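Sorry to interrupt, but I need a hand with the structure work. I would like you to pick a protein and set down its sequence and fold. Please put the record directly below this note.
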Amino acid sequence: MRSSDNCYCLKASIVSNHVSMDEQIELWHERIGHMNFRDLRTLGKFNCVRGLPKLGKKANGICGPCQQGKQTKSMHKKGKYLTTKEPLELLHMDLMGPMQTESLGGKRYIFVCVDDFSRFTWTYFLREKSKTFDKFKMLCNKIQNEMNSNIKSIKRIRSDHGREFENATFETFCNGLGISHEFSAPRTPQQNGVVERKNRVLQEMARVMLLSNNVPRNL
């Protein structure tokens, strides 16, 4: 619009510096184990992480290491299952390993246990798969001390037929505490999908952080 003194008035709009915004969200994306950008913005919006600012959208929404490290096969169809109503009603358990590369501490196995109700996860690193029972026993004692065993206790556990789970020692211990032990069908990990999915999440986070920082696999 031209004024009487031949000055032109233009409507201006604020333009954000997308480069700096992208750098900020990429930095926090790497700091928090390559979490997806949507959840990362949610954490910042509700001040769930100390020091995490409110983040905008990433221009292209793509992370190269995430694309490389999180590729998977096609998913199986979802099924309808009965859900639990309280914590410790059902624990999903699995043992990952042996890993191709052992850790600096000589660990090659990962024992993962997931609470079906809350999805709270316990993770233990083992040198040998024979130590699985010892870690499970320690977990039971820890839960009894922290959760007040008079009110809550483990009711059921679910695992595959691995010898680290299906043995006389494990059975005797579970019977002594009144814990029911459920097994998934052979070669059917989908029946224990909760912990299998958690295994994938843990491996993806570790793999992507290694790729992003170009560090040796044994770290």
About this structure: The chain has two domains: 18-64, 90-213.
